[in-house]
Amino acid sequence: MTTTAALLLGLAPLLALDDTEAGAEDAAPRRIAWYGTLEGAFAEAEASNRPILLMSAAPRCSGVPGMW
Amino acid sequence: MSDPAVVTASRAFVCVRPQTYEDAGERDWMLDTYAYRFDELENTLFGLLAPDGEETLSRAGRSPRQQWSSPAAFATALERIASDYDVRDADRTPGLPVVRDVRLGLNVAACDSMPLAIVWAQDEDDRAKLAERAAEIAWSDEHVGRWHWVVADDAEQLSLVDDLDRDFEGVALVAPEAYGRTGALLGAVDAGAQERTLVARFAEALAAFEPPVKDHRAHVRDGRRAGITWDSALPNTDGIGSRDRDR
Prior knowledge:
The structure holds two protein chains of two kinds.
Chain A: H1 2-26, E1 34-35, H2 38-48, E2 52-56, E3 60-61, E4 64-65
Antiparallel strand pairs in A: 3-4
Chain B: H1 4-10, E1 14-16, H2 24-33, E2 45-49, H3 71-82, E3 98-99, H4 102-112, E4 116-120, H5 124-138, E5 148-151, E6 170-176, E7 183-190, H6 195-208, H7 216-225, H8 242-245
Parallel strand pairs in B: 3-5, 4-5
Antiparallel strand pairs in B: 4-6, 6-7
């Protein structure tokens, strides 16, 4: 029992390390890459022949910035 | 919009968030393009367009939720629409997806809880070359969709970044303050740095960035109490359409 308990204790940090590495990857999630001007987007769409996804929103809520 | 399937499908599109209530030309274009909605620009507007920026490929609305029942359905629709278009010069690196200036960029980055990369050089040609180098980073697998970008066109804009030398030229890597009023330096790459240094600094800065988790209600409440407001260039006309005026 003592040996088993010691093995479990020894393995625990390794399990936590796996979770930590996964957490580090997820800390900066991948999002849509947005052009911030119509001019830039239209130029890229013309050059690449890609269709356009447009989402207009003011970067403020009840007048307060930092929140859509 | 943050659903992984939607994000993946979005890569086949040129995705744009216009300068809502910040640019009269963009406002007029949106009103002309979506003239069958209200007379005034709404706060949120969603639409899909052909590469010519004229032909609409979907109904306009406040958000994709009005047309698709789930992120999976939306992602599937995006894939189907994208398949109608042959991408031209697929190996070319797209242009840097920039926000207009540092002030707006900090606010947008704060809204998204994302870091901001600011490209700056005094000489216009040097600035353009630096922006091209930055585009390679912006569209790389490691960094696509993980940064917002600005190419500053005057040095004064960089005064919004704390602890940045006034004569700095290069790429400043910045964590926005919660309300996007200023930025804290995560790292900086000199304009003349080698490619491996550029890549390394971006990786270090991204690893150091801790995306804040914001509570919507607390953020707005605390901001109001502190008198923190955003002055947009144009008035917010959301809800002041002809239908509302008639009421």
